[in-house]
Amino acid sequence: MQLCRTKKRQFHQSERNFHKIDLYALRGVYKLLYYGKSKTIISLITFIENDG
Questions:
Q1: Rounded distance, CA 12 to CA 15, Å?
Q2: Which of 49, 50, 33 minimizes the C-alpha distance to 41?
């Protein structure tokens, strides 16, 4: 029983960290868009899509 509980706690911890990383990434993208660099992002995305 104890082992199961600790595993669950670890899972939730990693999930929380993942969400934090997600927020940072979104914030970075938002900042890039805000500073008028959306054209470079779009070209990057299209480049990746064309490459794949």
A1: 5
A2: 33
- Helices of type H across the chain: 2-34, 38-51
Checking phi first, is residue 36 left (phi over 0); if not, alpha (psi -120 to 50) or beta?
left
pLDDT score, position 1: 54
pLDDT digits (tens, 9 = 90+) for 1-52: 566 676 777 777 777 777 777 888 888 877 777 776 567 767 777 877 776 5
Place of tokens 């970075």: 28
